[in-house]
């Protein structure tokens, strides 16, 4: 099969801002203040958020909610949204929920994410909503959970996550 049989190519343009601007702004703020600054446009969102069309819709200490547009640009070879996008959403909301509990000068990174996929996702499933909640916020390790819901508010995936908490250099 040649490319003429594939139809017209489609495209999407991705733009982003220097991620070090956000990182520098985060050093002076608590985690919740950082997330609020990103939500409110005071700090630019991280590049991954622009790449996967994801943004903050709700914030409070220990809980976050993001939405993500889905389209064919994130499809896998069998005609559905790639599970990696859903996993990225879950990793993001688990990490950001933990971030909202941290003081200034403290960071985090995922050390484990366990994802359970519950139903297939297509462009018709979205936009997706991901909700992250802190289960236990420790001094060295934090635990969080997340879920992704389709536009009909049906769960499409859940996750549990462990995150390392550490002072930033």
| Strand-pairing-aware structural class | alpha+beta
In which range does the helix fraction lie? 10-25%
The helix/strand series, from N terminus to C terminus, equals HHHEEHEEEE
* CATH architecture assignment: Roll
CATH superfamily: Hotdog Thioesterase
Q: What count of structural domains?
A: 1
CATH topology: Thiol Ester Dehydrase, Chain A
Tell me the number of strands. Answer: 6
Sheet having the most strands: 6 strands, antiparallel
Could you characterize the architecture of this molecule?
This protein has helices at 19-27, 31-39, 47-51, 83-99; strands spanning 54-60, 63-68, 106-117, 128-137, 141-149, 155-167. The radius of gyration is 17 Å and the shape is globular. The protein is an alpha+beta fold. The chain contains 4 helices and 6 strands; from the N terminus they run αααββαββββ. A hairpin with a 3-residue loop joins strand 4 (128-137) and strand 5. The N and C termini lie far apart (53 Å). It has a single domain (17-167), classed as Thiol Ester Dehydrase, Chain A (Roll), CATH 3.10.129.10. The chain has a 6-stranded antiparallel β-sheet. The mean pLDDT is 96.
